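Hi support team,

I've been running sequence recovery on a batch of backbones for a student project. Most finish fine, but this one hangs at about 90% for roughly twenty minutes before it completes. I'm not sure whether the input is malformed or the queue is just slow. I've pasted the structure tokens below so you can try to reproduce it. Let me know if you need the job ID as well.

Thanks,
M.K.
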């Protein structure tokens, strides 16, 4: 593969306008879905509530489970099967249950378990997992997740400004913002639940995309010294082509791992695998078609002093 892709001369930057239109359309599609189909579904980690994973000895009547919970005062619970027809997730996130959960840890979970034991028998099922979160804890987790993303932005900008210079840092941060927006749109279009696992996946995508961008920018910096008279447009294309073999190998192996998780892993890890699989594509896309054109625009807008290549920059028609 390295031999096949060695010495390529693809004009990647040529298609930056088409790429920009496509990515804006995708983001707007996600925004439209959020507006017309409701907001994002949040896990109990952010809203508060009770989540239980149950495994029955034999396939139960789902309608009987629902009526049992209704009779016990657990209104509007969500019941979904996973793995097999004997395993179920029970989710209680109604405002009354959330408020009750705040009053006493695992209070709602105990009521659910007692009601089901009375209806199906004490040995008819077992509780495989149980999560109980109050609304105050959920609010703190939501703020912490947003803060984690913002801190990643600041640290990224500071690192790249120190490692390279402010032009590279600004371009990388804007490309990262693109990755977050497209990933959020993807999450909405697939109707994935926003959980701590999904937030971890988003942060992983940020790191993955930044790594790919830094690899290209590092090669750009090397070529700036080796090809001082080369127009910046051509220098960017050269740098992307030179890192292409490494990018293909890295993305292919990472994608193989995430697809394996997507197919073979359980329900808990599957949202992470979905987001990471998409993140590989959007991270690669932004490194080439977002970060690189922005860097060229900044170079043209704020040319370097005493730069021998300044008179050889591409025409204004290019970014």
């Amino acid at each position: 593969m390295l031999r096949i892709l060695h010495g390529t001369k693809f004009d990647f930057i040529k298609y930056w306008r088409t790429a920009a239109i496509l990515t804006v359309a995708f983001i707007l599609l996600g925004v439209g879905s959020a507006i017309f189909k409701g907001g994002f579904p949040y896990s109990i980690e952010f809203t508060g509530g009770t989540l239980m994973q149950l495994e029955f000895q034999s396939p139960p009547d789902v309608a009987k489970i629902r009526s049992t919970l209704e009779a016990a005062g657990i209104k509007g619970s969500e019941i979904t099967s996973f793995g097999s027809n004997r395993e179920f997730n029970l989710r209680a996130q109604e405002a009354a249950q959330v408020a009750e959960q705040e009053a006493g840890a695992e209070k709602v979970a105990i009521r659910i378990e007692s009601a089901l034991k009375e209806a199906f028998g004490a040995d008819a099922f077992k509780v495989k997992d149980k999560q109980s979160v109050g609304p105050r804890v959920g609010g703190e987790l939501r703020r912490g997740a947003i803060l984690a993303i913002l801190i990643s932005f600041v640290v990224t900008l500071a690192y790249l400004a120190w490692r390279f210079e402010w032009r590279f840092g600004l371009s990388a941060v804007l490309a990262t913002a693109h990755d977050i927006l497209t990933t959020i749109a993807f999450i909405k279009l697939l109707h994935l639940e926003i959980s701590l696992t999904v937030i971890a996946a988003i942060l992983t995508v940020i790191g993955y995309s930044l790594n790919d961008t830094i690899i290209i920018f590092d090669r750009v910096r090397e070529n700036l010294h080796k090809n001082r008279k080369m127009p910046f447009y051509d220098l960017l294309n050269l740098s992307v082509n030179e890192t292409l073999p490494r990018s293909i190998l890295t993305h292919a192996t990472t994608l193989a791992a995430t697809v394996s998780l997507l197919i073979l892993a359980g329900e808990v890890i599957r949202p992470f695998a979905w987001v990471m699989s998409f993140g590989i594509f959007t991270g690669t896309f932004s490194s080439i078609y977002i970060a690189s054109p922005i860097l060229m625009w900044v170079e043209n807008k704020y040319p370097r002093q005493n730069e021998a290549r300044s008179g050889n920059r591409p025409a204004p028609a290019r970014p």
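--
Follow-up from support: It reproduced on our side and the slowdown came from queue contention, not your input. The first helix runs from residue 2 to 5. No action needed from you.
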